[in-house]
Amino acid sequence: MGTGSSWHHQGVPHAAVRRISSSSRGPAINDTSVTPCVLAVPESTIEDLRTRLSRTRLPETDLVPAGSDPWSRGVPLTELEALREHWLERYDWRRLESELNSLGQWTTTIDGVALHLLHLRSERTDAAPLLLTHGWPGSVVEFLDVARPLADPPPGQPAFHVVAPSLPGFGLSGKPREAGWDVERITRAWAELMTRLGYARFFAQGGDWGAEVTTLLGALHPDRVMAVHTSFPQAQAPDGWQEEDLDAREAEWLHDTRAFWRDGTAYAEQMVSAPQTLGYALDDSPVALLAWVADKFHAWTDPTSEPYGAVQVDRLLDNVMLHWIGVSGASAAQIYAESWGRVDKVSPVDVPAAVSVFPGEIEKIPRAWVEARYRRLVRWEVLDRGGHFPSLEVPDLFVDELRASFAGLASAPD
Fold this sequence. Notes:
Layout: H1 5-10, E1 17-19, E2 35-39, H2 43-54, H3 77-89, H4 93-103, E3 105-110, E4 113-120, E5 128-133, H5 147-151, E6 160-165, H6 183-196, E7 202-206, H7 209-220, E8 225-230, H8 248-263, H9 266-273, H10 275-284, H11 286-300, H12 313-325, H13 329-339, E9 353-357, H14 367-373, E10 377-382, H15 390-393, H16 395-406
């Protein structure tokens, strides 16, 4: 079992990912192979994390005005201390490591970056390939609770070969060594990845930055994408659209979305303007990383379930751990500097498209906007629970939506 030095140079340090091959050498230049790997984080890395957590220096208090929401100025001190204690005393990294290894992990180098991916093939002969793309501050952890149900469904439901890559600079993927890894470049890399896996045509799904990538895949590769699904559609108001035509529900959606754009994007502006400066804290302090991520999981999940929607604390920490193990606080933030405010929101998507609207989503736009860009909208469903991370919050609904959206659309998937 080789160590894959080239892989480790770009990706996870401390020889945590082992390539499964007959040679200890890393991939050669221009190597297009997709190589199985296992994750084996040294105990010394876990002990270093525990030491850092045990030596955390926290503020003495948090000054929240009387009667205000305890989260009004960020993660409450008592909440962060509880998360830190859980991470230190009760969290089991080896559980997640085993879960990732059991699904099937692979690496391949595309455009100079060593990419990590989960690839779970269904045993069904009629299964279709499905490319799942996460966003920020997510990771492939977003798909751990849905991968097996999608690959091994009940009789009568569609089955999928699940492909879930880690975005460049995120988690266990390598880090770009040059600027320019914007959403369009990631889209090209994903198309190449599916070619290397032997999938000529495939379905695609994504939220957050994954929605940007998924939408562009549909727009730029209609010959390969059978259909797309998203809970975070990317579109603008079409010419001639009148706001007075909105019903009460969509008017409320648009009001809340504009409020988010106005008041809720300071985190993004920080990563746009100085991702490297912020990254020093995120890559050096596990509690800084924890607070940065937990704040968004609280703000962006379905508020009817507190404090992180229906996401369990261990799943939240699983996601934080992939960023910590991958030392990806700074590198994951770079996607904002590369793409924020410059993503194509107008190129038409002419492949079949499905949209699921979850009530806790941070941006919900009118159906007329969606239909103006996603010109073959085959499904539009408004759900009663879930938020920005539906595959973690409501995995049952998420799986049902994908099955309903893609059933009957596969045609010569391989």
